[in-house]
Design brief:
Helix 3 packs across helix 6, helix 8 packs parallel to helix 9 and helix 10 crosses helix 11. It contains 19 helices and 22 strands. The model has no long low-confidence stretch (mean pLDDT 92). It has 615 residues and is of the alpha/beta class.
């Protein structure tokens, strides 16, 4: 739980319907081996949810009290345990979640929405807990009973519990809890499985997490519950703000445990930025019971490896590729229509970024049924251009059938050195930037000449690091790649090769494998200067999307990439030094489409003064 991480244990137990004594022993056996801060059991897991009219029997309810009393005396688990059980109050029975910390019941939450249709007849047995907020005597203790937010103030962790069908209601308890400060919602459920319901429940969990800006944790009853016509499959899922982070659909008659790591700080960062959530707090304002607890501050043993390239999809490659390409291509189509021009000027280096920009432009022209010769592709070999990139640039342009121009800028650059009295043997920043600015000047003038506009090629990673020349490659008339980080640029070019450009696939693959470089000096490699883009993109994601501070990112770099303290320090220091110092370049960016969950344009969703000083 250091750095805001909490580990959930979602347990689908092997149960015997109507046998609390058997079931509590199974739970205790599991808890002896749970490696997490939470142990979440499903709805009515102590008795089984399909007891039917046995719920009317005092013997069953008495056995529930007896087994819970025993549990509190021998509970081996130090974290939070949540058990589903029937609870009797004022001669009425409630379907409840019992929240336990070691030997103490922190609170009891009754189910609000009771199905009374083909999916279940719970109103025959249970009373709704709607608007109950009281304390009851339960197992010789006076405990909160009703709508409760459980809070660990040190961790800024606040969770609410809903049960089964509560999630499907028009106004769910999750929405109320979230509007009143909960950042984690735990649903203990016993949904019988039907063909339509499996996907419906999954989609509902994802949507609850998205619209409420929470982590949504669902523990479902498994196959051992199945009786008569009801079949239970134990489909467990954990979502964070609309994204599935863990899902287990394995069906078993035996007990299974699913672990999921939840980043509370990331959730809170997203919640701060959610204006809808702030307004919902006014609509759903409610007096809820607040129960405080404290979890031990330990460094958790992560259940899953961190994603080293979080901007790049790990599944559904074609689907993600098609979505991103559609965003970029139609963004460009709209800009072409607005400017009423069929001419685009692009500088082509034979590197990744200019390749992606050219491919997007080519696809846009194809969709418009325009002649691709309207794309003016300009290669401008400079003082550091290699034969490999020059050859790839030619193969790419010729393979696409665009208008090809090669312009030698070397004489112009040397004249410029003479004018500003710069020694061309001094290969410093002036030597490099003069070439970048000369290229941009030529592209701008060509755009005027052909009544078109300059399509920028720089990507999101370069903008974050300021790895661009102000009023050079930083400037264009539309920055088509400004919303895509370098690791995703690589993904896109590769997938264009695999999906749409078989005739130049070999060239595109070679471009993907070419070391990244602006080639302003012979043998120059970008990653020798700024570090690996894979690591920098990870930092950008954790900072911009998750809201991590430098200390947490330092910890994650060691954990995720196996960096030494010295290496992690260097990466963190370099990234943030460059990020804050280079805001003035981002402040003057041209328009460009937002693609991932962060954009750095001052015209978009990132606002920061140029003169800010951090660290």
């Amino acid at each position: 739980m250091k750095y805001g991480f909490v580990k959930m244990g979602i347990i689908t137990p092997k149960i015997e319907v109507g046998a609390p004594r058997t079931n509590i022993m199974e739970m205790l056996d599991v808890l002896n081996n749970v490696n997490s801060q939470f142990a979440v059991f499903p709805e009515l897991s102590l008795t089984g949810s399909t007891c039917g009219d046995l719920f009317f029997q005092d013997d069953l309810i008495g056995e529930v009290i007896e087994t819970l009393t025993y549990f509190l005396t021998v509970n081996p688990f130090d974290g939070i345990t949540i058990i589903g059980a029937p609870v009797s109050y004022l001669d009425r029975l409630y379907n409840c979640a019992i929240v336990i910390k070691k030997d103490k019941i922190l609170g009891i939450v009754p189910k609000t929405y009771l199905p009374n249709n083909l999916d279940g007849y719970e109103k025959r047995y249970f009373e709704s807990g709607f608007e109950i907020n009281t304390k009851i005597d339960f197992i010789q203790t006076n405990v909160p009973f009703g709508n409760i937010i459980f809070e660990d103030k040190l961790l800024n962790l606040r969770f609410g519990v809903e049960i089964g069908d509560d999630m499907l209601a028009p106004i769910s308890p999750a929405s109320v809890y979230s509007a009143n400060g909960a950042n984690v919602i735990i649903n203990i459920a016993a949904f019988s499985a039907t063909l339509s319901k499996i996907d419906m429940i999954r989609n509902a969990a994802i949507e609850q997490s998205r619209k409420n800006s929470v982590s949504y944790v669902m523990a479902q009853m498994g196959a051992s519950e199945s009786t008569s016509s009801g079949v239970y499959l134990g489909n467990d899922i954990v979502c964070i703000c609309g994204n599935v982070v863990k899902e287990d659909n394995n069906v078993s008659l035996d007990t299974k445990i699913v672990y999921a790591d939840i980043d509370i700080k990331e959730i809170n960062f997203r919640r701060k930025k959610d204006s809808n959530l702030k307004d919902a707090a006014k609509f759903y304002k409610k007096d809820l019971v607040n129960v405080c607890f404290n979890l031990d501050l330990v460094e958790i043993d992560f259940s899953d490896e961190f994603n080293q390239t979080p901007f790049v999809p790990k599944t559904d490659f074609n689907d993600v590729f098609n979505k991103i390409s559609t965003i970029q291509e139609y963004a460009l189509i709209k800009r072409l229509a607005h400017l009423n021009t069929r001419s685009v000027v692009i500088g082509i280096s034979g590197g990744l970024d200019s390749t992606l920009a050219l491919l997007v432009a080519h696809q846009a022209f194809l969709k418009l049924n325009w002649d691709p010769r309207g794309i003016i592709a300009v290669t401008m070999p400079g003082l550091g251009t290699s034969a490999r990139t020059k050859n790839n640039a030619y193969k790419l342009m010729q393979g696409l059938g665009v208008t090809v121009k090669e312009l030698d800028i070397n004489n112009a650059v040397m004249d410029h050195f003479r004018i500003i009295e710069h020694d061309p043997n001094n290969k410093d920043i002036t030597y490099e930037n003069a070439q970048a600015r000369m290229r941009t000047l030529i592209l701008m003038d060509l755009a005027n000449k052909y009544n078109g506009f300059v399509l920028g090629t720089g990507d999101l990673s370069e903008l974050a690091l300021g790895w661009c020349t102000y009023n050079g490659d930083q400037m264009s008339m539309y920055g088509i790649n400004a919303g895509i980080p370098k690791t995703l640029v690589l993904f896109m070019v590769y997938n264009y090769a695999m999906n749409k450009y078989e005739n130049i696939a070999e060239t595109l693959i070679d471009i993907c494998e070419t070391p990244i470089s602006p080639e302003l000096v012979q043998g120059q490699k970008t990653e020798d200067n700024v570090g690996k883009y894979e690591i920098n993109d990870f930092i950008l994601y954790r900072f911009g999307v998750c809201g991590d501070d430098e200390e947490k990112i330092f910890y994650l770099l060691k954990r995720v990439f196996g960096l030494s303290e010295e290496e992690a320090t260097k990466y963190v220091s370099n990234f943030f030094r460059r990020f804050y110092a280079q805001q003035y370049k981002r402040q003057a960016l041209p328009d460009g489409p937002k693609v991932v969950d962060i954009a750095l344009s001052a015209n978009g969703d990132f606002r920061m003064p140029c003169d800010v000083k951090r660290g």
